[in-house]
């Protein structure tokens, strides 16, 4: 391993430039956390509404991610591996939610999942409501954040050498078995990383969620409501709590996912 | 018995067609071809990873053309081995040995394997294979930490584990350094005998093909040009392309040919490698010139030409002095390259002939650029083939 020990001038310049960006992210975070006095913070945290809302948000984003895993991973695999007519169109469709304003996405979703919607109406008859409901939040989060999972998974799949799948097949593995024994084990980190990204993006969603379901309140809606109704100081404790939690979760998942290069197991001893 | 019949495979812009190629059980067939000649496509088609647009693939009496790779039982070793990076050596070798795996190959054709499936579990089989390949010390290691030669052995063991109907090797030695390569070359031959495996091995290396192959198939630009014993391909290339691929640098168009009762005289000529153009007349043993009709080529392997220096020193013993009056040419050494075993000379007659002599001979004859030399081309070494 040859690690460069002396920092070049370029490294210094790049570090400085990067630091500016880091400060830009860090400043609001620090300002928010220190703006609310510890007492306000404790009070805010103890607020049952806040906790319920946090739990609701995390859970809805989680459910959306699980749904996307089941529906999106197979699609990502096809996009990575096969050539077929209309592939570009599908690729564009997948990325569409990134571009359109999320309030617009909410409106569009309402057309389908609203009480009069194409799917909303029949599903309502079996007791599944998407407006002002947990299911609505899930649908909104799913719609706006699924590109992150599908894109990441597709990229990960395309990094897996397809000849490995071929060799597995010649060794007697069915396509399912080759996928399960070779492709997935080599791609799961990327898929999990994509899931974390998607989950995180789901938590941050406001526009689409607020149109489908103002209630029950996700954290983003709750913060907006407190800010609009009671002013800046009322929104601060929730905001601070969300920021801290989000940071902890992201750092933790990085720690689990990132140090990847496979190291030879013990007993590597007499390598040539 | 593996048989390819009227095979047509389309891979992007590239198309491969094989009219007829069969490999008898236990035979080692080398497919020699330059880069991008379709060697890998051919192997992948036999393995079932590519669907041919036309033709049939037979494994014995089974028509496997429509069968997926997992039901064929063809062991494939890629050039860079394609080991599963997330599995250790033992798991790699044992990949195809999962209990309950559909034994497609089982029961087809009588097989007398040196190491037939033992009643023991997959672990025992993995150990046995690792032992045979000398990698039993590596079972717990991961592919990342292995040398090229070690990876190669693992890939071979993994393919052999399924007792394949045919072992498909895609340039398995090309990524290895010299000594390792020679060692593994011997090893391949030994394993093939031990397992009585049927092998199809593709390479661009002529010497490898000559050393290993029971038979040799020459694949150029997606088409089989010649199939035959290596010695035959070397001595009698089917056409100019095969000649060039098998190291013949003297390929000249035949300008005219006169066949009389006793011998055939041809005139050949041309320009080669920036030399002057010219024509010479040679007597050849071949009588097929007349039958070829139109355009034909004269092919002379550079090591078959006998070199005589100006002073009459001979680089090689000549059978009968009397014959020397025929096919005797004079020329000037235009370029000389010394290699470990050979010296390769370009001699301007004109046209320019390439001649290989043993390096010590070249040095004894004090050959240098500008030396005047005489060449003798024995009539029987001039091979005539269509363009």
Characterization of the model:
With 272 residues, chain A is mainly α. Chain A has one domain (38-257): MetI-like (MetI-like fold). Chain A is 77% helix and 0% strand. Chain A has helices at 9-35, 38-46, 48-81, 87-99, 102-113, 120-125, 134-159, 162-170, 175-203, 207-212, 219-230, 232-257. Chain A is globular and about 65 Å long. Mean pLDDT of chain A is 87; it is low at 261-272. Chain B has two domains: 2-235, P-loop containing nucleotide triphosphate hydrolases (Rossmann fold), CATH 3.40.50.300; 248-386, Beta Barrel (OB fold (Dihydrolipoamide Acetyltransferase, E2P)). Chain B has helices at 39-47, 89-93, 122-133, 148-160, 178-195, 206-212, 230-235, 240-245, 359-364; strands at 2-11, 14-23, 28-32, 54-59, 62-63, 74-77, 166-170, 199-203, 215-220, 223-228, 250-259, 264-270, 278-284, 296-300, 306-309, 328-338, 342-348, 352-358, 372-376, 383-386. In chain B, strand 7, helix 5 (178-195) and strand 8 (199-203) form a beta-alpha-beta unit. In chain B, helix 3 crosses helix 4. The longest helix of chain B is centred in the middle third of the chain and has 18 residues, at 178-195. Chain B is elongated. The chains are: A mainly alpha (272), B alpha+beta (387). At the A-B interface, helix 8 and helix 9 of A face strand 6 and helix 4 of B.
How do the strands and helices of this protein lay out in sequence?
The complex is a heterodimer of chains A (272) and B (387).
Chain A: H1 9-35, H2 38-46, H3 48-81, H4 87-99, H5 102-113, H6 120-125, H7 134-159, H8 162-170, H9 175-203, H10 207-212, H11 219-230, H12 232-257
Helix pairs in contact in A: 1-12, 2-12, 3-7, 3-9, 4-7, 5-7, 7-9, 8-9, 9-12, 11-12
Chain B: E1 2-11, E2 14-23, E3 28-32, H1 39-47, E4 54-59, E5 62-63, E6 74-77, H2 89-93, H3 122-133, H4 148-160, E7 166-170, H5 178-195, E8 199-203, H6 206-212, E9 215-220, E10 223-228, H7 230-235, H8 240-245, E11 250-259, E12 264-270, E13 278-284, E14 296-300, E15 306-309, E16 328-338, E17 342-348, E18 352-358, H9 359-364, E19 372-376, E20 383-386
Parallel strand pairs in B: 3-8, 3-9, 6-7, 7-8
Antiparallel strand pairs in B: 1-2, 1-4, 4-5, 9-10, 11-12, 11-14, 12-13, 14-20, 15-19, 16-17, 16-19, 17-18
Helix pairs in contact in B: 3-4
């Amino acid at each position: 391993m040859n690690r460069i020990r002396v920092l070049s001038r370029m490294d210094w310049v790049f570090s400085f430039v990067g630091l500016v960006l880091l400060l830009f992210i860090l400043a609001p975070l620090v300002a928010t956390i220190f703006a609310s006095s510890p007492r306000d913070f404790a009070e805010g945290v103890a607020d049952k509404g806040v906790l319920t809302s946090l739990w609701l948000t995390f859970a809805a984003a989680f459910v959306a991610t699980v749904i996307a895993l089941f529906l999106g991973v197979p699609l990502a695999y096809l996009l990575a591996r096969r050539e077929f007519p209309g592939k570009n169109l599908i690729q564009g469709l997948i990325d569409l939610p990134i571009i359109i304003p999320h309030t617009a996405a909410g409106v569009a979703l309402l057309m389908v999942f609203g009480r009069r919607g194409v799917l909303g109406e029949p599903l309502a008859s079996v007791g599944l409501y998407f407006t002002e409901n947990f299911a609505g939040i899930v649908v909104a989060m799913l719609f706006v954040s699924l590109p992150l999972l599908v894109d990441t998974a597709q990229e990960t799949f395309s990094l897996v050498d397809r000849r490995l799948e071929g060799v597995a097949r010649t060794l007697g593995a069915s396509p399912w078995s080759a996928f399960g024994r070779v492709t997935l084990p080599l791609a799961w980190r990327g898929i999990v990383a994509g899931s974390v990204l998607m989950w995180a993006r789901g938590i941050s969603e406001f526009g689409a969620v607020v149109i489908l379901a103002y209630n029950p309140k996700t954290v983003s809606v709750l913060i907006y409501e407190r800010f609009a109704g009671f002013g800046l100081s009322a929104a601060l404790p929730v905001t601070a709590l969300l920021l801290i939690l989000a940071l902890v979760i992201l750092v933790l998942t990085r720690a689990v996912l990132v140090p990847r290069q496979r190291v030879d197991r013990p007993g590597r001893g007499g390598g040539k | 018995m593996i048989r390819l019949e009227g095979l047509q495979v389309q891979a992007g812009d590239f198309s491969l067609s094989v009219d007829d190629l069969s490999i008898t059980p236990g035979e080692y067939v080398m497919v020699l071809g330059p880069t991008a000649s379709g060697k890998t496509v051919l192997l992948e088609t036999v393995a079932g990873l590519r669907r041919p647009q036309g033709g049939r693939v037979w494994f014995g009496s089974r028509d496997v053309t429509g069968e997926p790779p997992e039901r064929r039982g063809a062991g494939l070793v890629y050039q860079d081995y394609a080991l599963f990076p997330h599995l250790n050596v033992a798991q790699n070798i044992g990949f195809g040995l999962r209990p309950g795996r559909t034994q497609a190959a089982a029961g087809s054709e009588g097989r007398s394997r040196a190491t037939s499936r033992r009643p023991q579990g997959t672990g025992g089989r993995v150990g046995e294979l690792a032992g045979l390949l000398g990698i039993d010390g590596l079972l717990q290691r991961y592919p990342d930490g292995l040398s090229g030669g070690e990876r190669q052995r693992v890939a071979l063991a993994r393919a052999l584990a399924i007792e394949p109907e045919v072992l498909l090797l895609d340039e398995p030695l090309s990524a290895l350094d010299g000594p390792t390569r020679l060692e593994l070359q011997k090893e391949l031959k030994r394993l093939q005998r031990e397992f009585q495996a049927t092998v199809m091995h593709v390479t661009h290396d002529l010497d490898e093909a000559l050393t290993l192959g029971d038979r040799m198939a020459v694949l150029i630009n997606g088409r089989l040009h010649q199939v035959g014993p290596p010695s035959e391909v070397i001595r009698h290339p089917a056409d100019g392309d095969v000649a060039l691929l098998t190291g013949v640098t003297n390929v000249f168009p035949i300008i005219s040919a006169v066949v009389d009762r006793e011998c055939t005289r041809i005139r050949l000529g041309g320009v080669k490698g920036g030399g002057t153009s010219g024509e010479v007349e040679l007597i050849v043993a071949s009588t097929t010139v007349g039958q070829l009709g139109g355009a034909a080529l004269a092919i002379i392997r550079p090591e078959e030409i006998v070199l005589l220096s100006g002073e009459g020193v001979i680089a090689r013993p000549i059978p009968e002095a009397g014959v020397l009056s025929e096919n005797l040419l004079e020329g000037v050494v235009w370029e000389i390259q010394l290699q470990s075993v050979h010296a390769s000379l370009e001699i301007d007659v004109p046209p320019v002939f390439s001649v290989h002599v043993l390096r010590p001979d070249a040095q004894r004859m004090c050959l240098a650029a500008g030396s005047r030399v005489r060449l003798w081309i024995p009539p029987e070494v001039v091979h005539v083939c269509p363009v």
